[in-house]
TrEMBL record:
InterPro entries: PPIase_dom_sf (IPR046357), PPIase_PpiC (IPR000297), PPIase_PpiC_CS (IPR023058), PrsA_foldase (IPR050245). Residues 92-192 form the PpiC domain. Keywords: Isomerase, Rotamase. This is peptidylprolyl isomerase. It comes from Duganella radicis. Belongs to the PpiC/parvulin rotamase family. Coiled coil: none annotated. It catalyses: [protein]-peptidylproline (omega=180) = [protein]-peptidylproline (omega=0). Its EC number is 5.2.1.8.
Amino acid sequence: MGIAVNGVDIDDSAIAAEIGHHQQADNPLRQAVHEVVLRQVLLHEAQRLGVHGEGEDERIEALFQREVRVPQADEQACLRYYLAQAERFRSGDLVEARHILFQVTPAAPLTLLRHTAEAVLAELQARPGRFEELAAQYSNCPSGAIGGNLGQLGRGQCVPEFEELLFRLRPGELAGRLLETRFGLHIVQVRRRIEGAPVPFETVRAQIADELQRAAWQRALHQYLHLLVGRARIDGVELGGATSPLVQ
């Protein structure tokens, strides 16, 4: 493919070996090329600095430990995060909800499904009392047989995007847009909320510190990679906007 890092050619076989790890990416070939190039940039830097290890992964890890350092999250940073994310740190919150699920199938492609779901949502906005009837008619979820009723749901019981919407809606509120999840398209209504209680800061302080530390580490790592890529001579590929599992 004519790709080189600091004058050293990258063999196509290295990219072919890497591509199998990126089949879920939007562009597996591009992601594999980026990964191989970034790895070579890091290995060249490790060699330049005399960083050693038994294998490539160990040398890269040793390079990160030497060159990338972030401060520990202090008490004030953790408390600010706790107060800003107060809704996350509650126990016992429950919502009673119902939904209508429009599931994508070969017989019901997304475009057609969206058109039908939007028409049903518009009908419910005009005539809210038809929810049970339309759930029984249209929902691909077993709950459709009981009017779309999902019962009481707590945090952590649903996929994140569904949960985020559930705990944002007010009692009786019908979501004004369709929600898309891996299951399909949903019309969602919260019927009742049962408020829980805040989890004390002391209980989640270690969890918050860990989250802040990981986020700081990833930011620092991305900045370090950006710096190394900027200094390296890379021919045959443009790495602008590249991401890498090396820094996940």
